[in-house]
Amino acid sequence: MKLHESPSPNARRVHVFMAEKDIDCERVSVDIRGGENIRAEYLAKNPAGRVPVLELDDGTFLGESVAICRYLEGVYPEPNLFGDSPLAAAQIEMWQRRAELNFMAEVAGAFRNITGFFKDRETCVEEWGRVCAERAPKNLIMFDDQLAQSEYIAGDQFSIADITLAIAVDFARQVKVVALPDLANLDRWHNLVTSRPSFSAT
Ligand SMILES: N[C@@H](CCC(=O)N[C@@H](CS)C(=O)NCC(=O)O)C(=O)O
Question: pTM to 2 decimals?
Answer without folding.
Answer: 0.98
